[in-house]
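Journal club side-thread
Mid-discussion, someone asked how the predicted structure for our own chain would compare to the paper's figures. Pasting it here so we can look after the session.
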Amino acid sequence: MGRALVIVESPAKARTIGGMLGPDFIVESSVGHIRDLPRGADEVPAAFKGESWARLGVDVDNGFKPLYVISAPKKSVVANLKKLLKGADELYLATDEDREGESIAWHLSEVLSPTVPVKRMVFHEITPAAIARAVDEWRDLDRRLVDAQEARRILDRLYGYEVSPVLWRKVMPRLSAGRVQSVATRMVVERERARMRFSSATWWGVEGTFTRAASSFGATLVALGGATVATGKDFDDHGEQTGKGSVRVLGEDEATSVAGALTGRSFTVSSVTERPFRRSPAAPFMTSTLQQEAGRKLRFSAQRAMQVAQRLYEQGFITYMRTDSTTLSDQALTAARTQAREMYGDAYVPDRPRRYERKVKNAQEAHEAIRPSGESFRTPDQAARELSGDELRLYELIWKRTVASQMNDATGTSAQVRLTAAVPEGVAEGQQAEFSASGRVIAFPGFLRAYVEGEDDPEAELADREVVLPTLAVGDVVEGRAFEPGAHATQPPARYTEASLVKAMEELGVGRPSTYASVIATILDRGYVWKKGTALVPSFTAFAVVGLLERYFGDLVDYGFTASMEDDLDEIAAGREEALPWLTRFYFGNAVPGATNGHGEEVEAVGLKATVAAHLSEIDAREINSIPLGNGSDGEPIVARVGRYGPYLQRGEDRASIPDDLAPDELTIERAEEILAAPSNDRVLGTDPESGLDVQVKAGRFGPYVQVGEVTEGGDKPRTASLFSSMEPATLTLEQALELLRIPRTVGADPETGQDIVAHNGRFGPYLKRGSDTRSLTSEDQLLTVTLDEARALFAQPKQRRGRAAAPPLRELGTDPTTNLPVVLKEGRFGPYVTDGTTNASLRQGDAVESIDMDQASELLAERRAAGPSKKKKGAKKAAPAKKKVTAKKATTAKKTGAAKKSPGTKKAAGATKAAAKSEPAGPAAMKAAPTDPF
């Protein structure tokens, strides 16, 4: 008999399962999806290049039939799987048990075209028992899940490929729109808008310290003269009193007088209120709550949390990590209750298991909650024999949450005491001052012994939660020992963190928990959002994009509409909705049944295609990219604009780049005037003899540079060149500027190879390039002086690496919890970075050298490790022409394509790096071509 071939998504999963199944099974990985819609024109097969729908990869006029292609890197994977299948007598498709996993399994079945029996093998944990059960209890492919995933993929392609070009034309190139990413960006922008509208209110209060016998406790002034003393809740976001009830706003003088007058006075207990409290444990983790807690407790980004969870799952330590369920199996309930009883005693475990039901929009995929795998759970100490670093920390978090979910409630008593005394005459007119003190006593800690949401140490948290008051009764007298007046101010709405954004998206029903991490990573990578500490700050580009989408494509970024699309996709997965009519309505529109206009004509719901066509010509790019800030001190309006190369300020003819690390809510009129008033050494050097345009020297964000002509809306990017490090803007001449603008300079053709030798100023300094071969130059001046003979002599010599002395670290930060290696902060050629000696990670936009700490450094290093080593692109090979036309089928093989290798000189030196292109007036950089795939 032959052996069975089992295909999973990842090599790590294949290794784990392979060790459990034994020699009768061959376990191999598909390394994710083996085919997808074409990501660019170069992936579209020759037979389809002339089709009108080829750029979409979806034949919208033929039932939205997708064009699937096998990417070049996956061809070897497919070839290997086909080879292994020839020696197998049955095929098990063991991809994940969700829409994405079902889709991968279906694509494998379509591409491999097996002639042996095909069995769908599903499991939610990787243990010997679970895998054996999955082999025995196989099922067929679920076409409803496949159709739902395909509809989702087509929808996202239509959305991105139709709307993204609008952004390229009206905002700037290389931007992208996405069904979920654009809505998530809008959420962050709306929070920043609220902060920009916010006006702070200030009030004063009084804190008192009281004694009774040998005990002391604190209390807060809550009323004076029968009127409630104002607190933050009594003011709105505009700094005005809400008008709800009669409150007394204390100023500094009054608060100081009251505090001084009450010191040493006796107070009477006017009321004592005691109430029992009970708190129940949180449900076991699902995807969204795991991301939130990992962010709060471990400072993990959502992406980092999911990457670590993926590794734990594939190694067999936890159940499947993409789930909306909080349900535990009977086996898991028994394991959790047994472990809680063994560790804390019978009193901590309820008589019956706790069962948790989900109540959230768009819940889908009824898997089990995320929990430790197996019939009995490994304790963190046991897991530490195989795990360390991030994996051990996350496993312990999951283990604690699961065990705590099956423990008894925490119970106790909360108390509130009111204290009163008369304020002396002449201070507050003899009025009564009333203070309030709150206490809490935990009688039985229950689950709090094991786990507290948002806290690292349950024992320390128990102590913090207890605020013990002395035994007091109405009429008792206490002494007012000390009183301290203090100023308070209302705070703007807090910016989203990754954890709070995940929570908000889930509450709104935007996206799926399984995609939250990738959505947040996308809006960070695309520059729509950047991090200031853990807070998510929108860029000015995000303001322009969201403004355009809200005004012209309102439904596409409407929270309710986006959530309803998720509902519809769930209906398709459940078989209650058909994908084709739904996609037709979304893209082409349709008549709304029963709805008529004033003439009795049926109302048409406009589809995406017509919406884009109708609005494109009416969008005013300048208006969309303008954010009015108000009038300056001279009465002239100041506007923040998003240009082709980044955001800038404009007041009349004056322009200035907006600093990268300036958050929108910090760009006040005063700050804008400071930026505009900053000195500039920009000056005209003379006229370019070739074009007749002015040659200017400018101060850019990344160093001084020369530029020919001006930036114009819709015009070509002006020619620019960085100054050499030996040059000064104040003394630069027109002749020197024209020489700089000759770079890259063709030195001449090598007579032996026939290839041009070109002098470049690159990322790592000046160099020569001949074909794909390069040689370094010793100085920037050689870029203008090196001769052909000198260049040929350099290429005749062996290529050498140029080293440089390592700079001392700026600061030592501590020990990395993953590698246990010392981490230092260093200054590199392209800015500050952290390193543990094996991994380097650049600081993010908004990270300050002065305040970076070990937690932030650990997060940066972990994300860099998770990203893996940089991959070099293979050289492009010319594809052979298609021999014959191929009809459109479910599977279509793509031509072999590749991207040319990058030379070491594709980026400018310190004077003008590629980042300079982010700001229109800031400095030179080559504008990159628009992407072929906005996803």
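Post-session note: The longest helix spans residues 143-170.
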